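## Example record

The block below lists the input lines for one assembly entry, exactly as stored, with component labels intact.
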Amino acid sequence: MFVAPDSKIMSTSPRAHSASSGQAWVRATERSGMTLMELVIGVLLTTLAATALLILSSNTGRCLAELTNYVDLDHYNRVALDTMTRDLRQVRYMTSFSSNAVTCVDKDGGQLSYVYSPVNRTLTQTKGGLSKQLLQQCDQFNFAIYQRTPVSNKYSLFSTTATNCKVISVTWSCSRTLFGRKVNKEQGQAARIVVRNKKEI
Amino acid sequence: MKTTIRRAGQEGSILMVTVTLSFIIGIVLLACLSLVKNQNQSVARSQAWNTCIPVIEAGIEEAMAHLNNKRESSLAVNGWTQTGSILFRERPFGDGFYSAVVDMTDFFRPTIICTGYVRLPAVVAMANQPLMASAVNVGGVSYISRTVQVLAKREPRWSKAMLAKDTISMSGNGIDTDSFDSSDPNYSTGGLWDPAKRKDNGDVATNSGFTNALGVGNANVRGRISTGPGGTVNIGPNGVVGSNPWHDGGNSGIEPGYSRDDMNIWIPDVEVPWTGGALPPISGVVTGATYTYLLAGGNYELATLTLKKDERIAVTAKSVFYVKGDLTMLGRIDIMPGATLELYVGGANAVIGGEGINNTGQATNFQYYGLPSNLYLDLPSNGDFTGAIYAPSVDLKLNSGGSSTLNFSGACVTRSIHLTGHYNFHYDEALRKAGPWKDYVIVSWVEL
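Predicted structure tokens for the full assembly:
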């Protein structure tokens, strides 16, 4: 098929030939022309379909990004918790404490510290002069210390000083942003770590 | 007439759009599934890795229970195998198992190495990714394993100068505590306390967590003080607690770091020395002196013991004397050189008065054990006391009376302690080294 310069369509179909008494030309208005209504409906439908596609793509992308964020958040939280429980469990004793930082004498006699920076929103582990960032975009972090001896008939523990610390409690919450907005926020991680070593005086 | 026009090109476009969309959705779906899979693996790995700790600690618990089992005469029992000084035990635990090795090369400080194995979750086993804990293959099964090494040691029965379950009160201005070591000539002279060689381990401790659980008053404690959690110390204006330099420097009050409130020590009851009975002691003569009772070694028992003012007991060899009822002593017990006496008292009341215990040896030569039924022990003696008291149910009263200062060389573990008058309490650190011993306790914990 080809289109003639005068906007008529020349058909090679035998039926077309017979219907027009031997002429090969068919009037285009009968088949290819669109009325204004058809055009409007066509544009509307196309717009609707495109919008739906756009929304679908956007939501899918956003969902994927959020999922990625969450996995990242969860991964960092888990590694941080595993690392802290492993390390703090075997320190010899604590030397200094604040709600943002703890410093302990590690199993090898070296110094081990965990410091939370509210400005940078990071938790940093420092051991032997080497620092490692365990948490990023950490909105809130808190250390608390206790004795190991439980309070009678309660789940709570006696708060104490760094000298007598046997239990280190950590709580934190982190978040991740998407297009500048916080979209993933952990409700909070919490753990109580019992220092296994006995401080020999 | 109608003309049908084939629009093959437009149909192709729809196909392309469909394929493209499907591809995009597929990629997104794949990414999502991949994320979920990674997340799942991470969680499973972490769970398995953390599960290793209770498995390991179960192994350590079993090893400790095995070491502290006094009912067995051999360590190669209850599934434990022994090769030289090494003990080994492996036990299934849930989906995994643990293997515990105890190195008894140093009998007083055995080392326990326990490895916990937890079956690697299938989802992680297939992942073939780097893990925080590497997987090990045991018998064709993949496990995550972690290993912990703990050091245990035997605690001495008398680890402090004064140890009580409940309150300790020291009244008056003439009470001092310090320490010496009768087994070390650097810290004793002829095995006796020497003020020029004294140490500062005259610790005073109570498990009590009550207000004023420990009343130091105006005493001078050359050592540390401890109460139970929440317990408080009542110290007077002239009371001093701290190291020798703190005391010698003329300080008052408690030296920083010398007071704690986390005391929580297990004080087991005394068991009866025997149940089969023993002969009562009889009188005898030692170096020309006649004694009401002569303990010449071995086991002796009496229903009750009342020793009058002019009556004496002589101990000439290692003896165990079980007084099932009350003990009232107004006379004297002479412990001859080289002899030892373990005195068990089952009655509610015990008074060691008169001339008291004439112990020519060290604190280990006279050991007083109060059974759970022994509730009161009074030491109103007018002489010095050398010995060790272990009576977890006893209210101990030490009253020097008069203005003279008495010396107590040894240690005591009781329910409560009340000191009045002028008492110098010298903790003999040889009791830490010579025993007797309590059970093994863990003093260090390191993950390998």
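The first strand of chain A starts at residue 2 and ends at 3. Chain A touches chain B at residues 1, 11, 13, 15-16, 19-20, 26, 30-31, 53, 57, 60-61, 63-64, 67-68, 70-71, 74-75, 78-79, 82, 85-86, 89-90, 107, 147-149, 151, 158, 160, 163-164, 166, 196-198, 200-201 (CB under 8 Å).
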